[in-house]
Specification:
This protein has six helices and no strands. By secondary structure, it is mainly alpha-helical. The longest helix has 29 residues. The radius of gyration is 18 Å and the shape is elongated.
């Protein structure tokens, strides 16, 4: 039972972080540069790979899709934890995959992001690690 709770907690952290990130992507100015000239330049500049979008639109799109990826991962993890706990005990590989995904996000967070997502991902990764160990050896 504790493994299910920890696994679900790791998924819930991803869900909360992803949802909050999606909200701030489209509401307010938290993802805007402090220097308005930078935003203006991003809106006026296209990418080398295509002239079909501005750097600003790509920035918003990357942030939105990044958020949705975290939310979908959370949904799968929560579905497994809540509805398929026996399956996780019989196939702990899925818990290890969740751990690997979370650890990869944590590495990116440590290198490129700030305290809140880094700390949340560290907690989620710890939850997944303990749950994976419990599913495998508990």
């Amino acid at each position: 039972m504790l493994a299910h709770i920890l696994f679900a907690a790791g998924g819930a952290i991803f869900g909360v972080l992803g949802t909050l990130h999606l909200v701030i992507t489209f509401r307010g100015s938290r993802l805007h540069p402090y220097d308005a000239a930078v935003r203006d330049a991003m809106q006026a500049t296209t990418l080398r790979m295509t002239r079909d979008t501005s750097l600003w639109k790509a920035w918003i799109g990357f942030n939105a899709s990044h958020s949705m990826g975290a939310m979908v991962f959370a949904a799968f993890v929560l579905l497994l934890a809540i509805g398929y706990g026996d399956f996780l005990r019989s196939a702990p590989l899925f818990a290890w995959l969740a751990l690997a995904n979370s650890a990869a996000w944590l590495i990116v967070a440590q290198r490129y992001w700030f305290r809140i997502p880094r700390n949340g991902l560290a907690l989620a990764t710890t939850c997944f690690l303990i749950a994976a160990l419990m599913y495998s050896f508990g």
